[in-house]
What does this fold into?
Amino acid sequence: MKFSELGLNDELLKAIKRSGFEEATPIQEQTIPLALAGKDVIGQAQTGTGKTAAFALPILQNLDRHEKTIQALIIEPTRELAIQTQEELFRLGRDEKARVQVVYGGADIGRQIRSLKKQVPAILVGTPGRLLDHLKRKTIDLENVNTIVLDEADEMLDMGFIQDIESILSYVKNRKQTLLFSATMPKPILRISEKFMNNPEIVRIKAKELTADLIDQYFVRSKDSEKFDIMCRLIDVESPDLAVIFVRTKRRVDEVTRGLQARGYNAAGIHGDLSQARRMSVLKRFRSGKLDILVATDVAARGLDISGVTHVYNYDIPQDPDSYVHRIGRTGRAGQNGMSVTFVTPNEIGYMRTIEQLTKKKMEPLRPPSDDQALRGQLKVAKTKIEDLMKEDLTKYTQDADELLENYSAVDLVSAFLKNLSKDSSKVEVKISSEKPLPYKGGGRRGGGRGRGHYGHGSRNGHGGRGGYRGGDRNHRGGDRDHGHGNYRGGHSRRNGGDHNFVIKNKKD
It folds into this structure.
């Protein structure tokens, strides 16, 4: 359906056209008319499906331009997502001259207060902690808020923000509309909707869309100590344009990033201990293509909207199945194919099966490439670089080239050049500290069982929280002691029929 059929005004349609969009996504098509009509809406869809525009466009259209109060409040789980939402509102609301401000932790609150006093925004975007801080200081007034948006609600649940959300909602007593968006709908989120929403309309994207049908999902069975070398070989063969590597801890972010850099990969990492300026700098480089690989924890990467990611590597299997949906949703966007690879230790197979039950899609076993296949992949990239160099003006190098040719054969010179361009990464030893695998708590056999298998007893930051998974099927597949059943051919083109192999992707394609 075209945006022009959704009841939006000319200013917004102009902004949408300027952004290059014509067709509404399913979440936008179903949500926008309901939100324009003032209804409460629960939207279930993952990051990257167009949720921001689904709530931003109705909010912008329903604003009273002459009112000098906060009319809409949007709550986001992270600073990065809050900033991205503000930018999207600016972009879509430019012709509406909408006043938008963002508040989040890690930034100077004094500057935020001065900005709020100077010009009261019509739309306020913020993270829960900083919003509560402003409310307690009485530097924001939510009495006239008509619409409130809870975005990435399950992420806020995972981060322990539910009580903060309830506290904030108690300040917005005169709201007429509540919009809630979440990739998954655990019971605490449903309780929030029952308590604070009025007969909400439910817009649910089908499960197969939640995991993006364009994403090829694989798993590699390996010991923890084997993961890094296997991942490097996979990267060499696949040569991803942009890749995100998810790890479980901040220490792992630092160690995996240093290891990749030591082996010559263009990588950087982000986690919660980095300064806001540092995190934003890394993300800016990654978005602009100056970085090839981003290493991140779930918390640091939440809500990131980055286009062009071709590969997601789950170095550590996620601590709850919902996080898997968010992770792989970083790729396979805008109609492009994507690939995810999850490393699974032998006693984590049951957790992987539970992920498959949630996503309704099986991960295919993948046999890691050999050192020779990895070198072939590196040399393929090196040859592409040489072909690009040959298109440039090389005349000032010909005299030195002639001198070298007098002493060495052309084959030896080209071989030396190829060696220099490729990374013999296997010779650079990298030590990654071991992490305990997710605890197996189920009955029956390892990796599945009849009983309940839980992803630990606490949340990712160790402060308690949700339990997790019920264990996978008892008679799980993938029980071989190998690293998988499928032969490796690299790359990530779409699979054909029952063939689980795939071919190397050229970066030029």
